[in-house]
Amino acid sequence: MRSPLHRRSCLSRLRKRPRTLRAGLLLRATLLLAGLLLARPAHARMALIVGEPFGSFGTMMPQGHASIYLENLCVETAVHLRPCRPGELGAVVSRYHDLRHPELDWLAFPLPVFLYGTRDLTHVPLSMTLPREMDLRETYRQTYLSAFVPDRTDKHGDRVPPPFGDWAEGVGSAFDRRLLVYSFDTTAGQDAATLHWLNDRPNRRAYTLTRHNCADFAADLLRLALPPEVLHRNVLADFDMTTPKTLAREVDTYGRQHPELHLQVYEVPQIGGTLRRSRPIRGAAESLITTKRYFAVVVVLQPELMLADWIIYETCGRWSLGLDAVAISPGALASTLSSPAQPVPESLPRASASSQSSTN
Length: 360
Prior knowledge:
Number of strands: 13
Structural class: alpha+beta
Number of helices: 13
Oligomer: single chain
Order of helices and strands: HEHEEEEEHEHEEHEHHHEEHHHEHH
Strand order of the largest sheet: 6-5-2-1-10-11-13
């Protein structure tokens, strides 16, 4: 038979148990609440950057170039990203068609480097010349890209810098062209998925003009943050290709319909200087009726084809880019992109494509 002392100790433990249970439940509830607070999506931004065409190739193919800006992901190397540290402004990734030595599909650049060719936004050049542009890009290549864009061997066996290639457009893109930025909110989970998609997949050259161009690459990244069914080719107006203009139109339309994304449209003006100015961005069908050399040849050889192209453009392809864009300067770049203003209203009137052309 148990002693009275033993019975009293058992009773005391029973009386204390509810208090212990309550304390345990409180601790678990506190830990759960802390986990939920820490798991809330952090503020982040993704943006489609559409660059106007320039140069002789831009005259023949005036579709422009598409890149993706990631506010919370930064450059570890040109082919590997990481979460940003405090004070960093994010990275721009893009597919380039001439990355053959070695065979790479995309490169990443810090945002200030991509736009202005410098990591310090207080040293953005006010004007640019071709010799200075080439020197700045070659210096960046030697410092940060030599493993990915190496020197080449000429016919005499000497090591020489590579000729100009599309990779160079990732260093000071605003020297050559005007840029339009379609920026919207993302979640921490979407940023993590983007980081995984870029770092854990083989970075092997996949470029083709009709199926795997720069806009196709941008669309693949956008589908990690936007519903996949939102982004598709304009089969008629773009001849079944993905073009930067169509991507911008789809991001713009979806963002206006969903105010929670806080869509913002910005313009990065082209840096002044002696370099030629960039040209308006066109869709594929639009290019035939707005590019003089194409228009003249097709009208002479097969005028009915030009009529059909004009009908397709008026029906499926007429849309204006960036007429409501807010111009941002280098000094305001960091605060503007990281702290978006009120979302662009869905009902904002859009001007016609013809007025856009005259503006440009």
